[in-house]
């Protein structure tokens, strides 16, 4: 297998730090991965979206970039839809990474790339665009383009949740595991594109929506036992304006400029509710999740991304599984 190349000397147990820029096509002996970031809303803010660790996929992306005929031009368009960069798998090696800006072209079946620090821009052909999207985003190009078209048409406004003053540090799982909570290993079957407001009960009431996710519980790691297929909820998501209005009093409807909207807009467009600790679990993937019972038969992920973990390592001797939080990257054994 062709490997990404860079000439390095490695002596004994000493760590060697590399200066300069990390170029994906100049590395030979050290394996790399690709980190992908996704834009949040319309602002120039990004969150971790995907990591590509498969050597063959990393090399395919490197080959595409190597063969790009870059234009020397500084672009001035909307913030990139995604960003990505190469990084050493071996943390003993460091280098300044080149960040690639990534746009979905809404008019053509293609993507556009830029290296903003170097004023370079490129419009990729359909074949390279498709390969890049499938590896980095995990979708085929037409589905990604449809997703962007629909999202841009549907979202009327974004409600960014206020910063929360936590009573206990949510990055510590023990603070999220209450008396009635469970830690489960599950597989995601499907997730909805539409959130809803859950019914109030004596234990639960919030004024923001939750998005349903269909999962299959593989095992209960701790807490109240759960099993089989079930629906769980994550805080936030997209809600029809008409449903939001039902939750507001007349004064708040006027204050939020929703009273003058047509019935068509109210019933076809959405308000997107977001937090700084959102994380979207991927269909077909397994996670360890801290789940709280909201009342009746409804369950929700505790603190969104702070309560979601990916499998990191397995100790054959102790049979312990180490999980890594999807937001903080802190590792835990449940």
Description:
The protein has 334 residues and is α+β, with helices and mostly antiparallel strands. It folds into three domains: 135 residues, Immunoglobulin-like; 122 residues; 37 residues, no CATH class. It contains six helices and 20 strands. A seven-stranded antiparallel beta sheet has the order 3-2-5-7-8-9-4. A five-stranded mixed beta barrel has the order 11-12-13-17-16. Helix 1 packs antiparallel against helix 2.
CATH classification, class level of the largest domain: Mainly Beta
Task: Let me know the largest β-sheet.
Answer: 7 strands, antiparallel
Architecture of the largest domain in CATH? Sandwich
Q: For the largest beta sheet, what order do the strands appear in spatially?
A: 3-2-5-7-8-9-4
How many separate helices? 6
Topology summary:
Blueprint: E1 21-22, E2 32-39, E3 46-52, H1 55-66, E4 71-72, E5 82-88, E6 96-97, E7 100-104, E8 111-115, E9 120-123, H2 126-136, H3 141-154, E10 155-160, E11 182-191, E12 210-223, E13 228-235, E14 237-240, H4 241-247, H5 250-255, H6 263-268, E15 270-274, E16 286-295, E17 298-301, E18 308-314, E19 321-325, E20 331-333
Parallel strand pairs: 1-6, 10-15, 13-17
Antiparallel strand pairs: 2-3, 2-5, 4-9, 5-7, 7-8, 8-9, 11-12, 11-16, 12-13, 14-15, 16-17, 16-18, 18-19, 19-20
